[in-house]
Amino acid sequence: MTDDNLLSRISIDPNIYFGKPCIREHRIWVSLILDLLSAGETIDTILEVYPGIKKEDILACIAVQR
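Below the sequence we write its predicted structure tokens.
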């Protein structure tokens, strides 16, 4: 999956969480996922805690950081 495809999984809406980037169709901040990853959480653990998101959503959060 290309970065462009991944980035389409992220939305920025000024009416949702003051325009902070979120996973599309969810109100989960990109920064939250990045914080969890930087704290040592694994992708599998994050997927267990947030069952509504997919691995591609987490990869999209990482792609935003680049």
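Helices lie at 3-7, 30-38, 43-49, 55-65.
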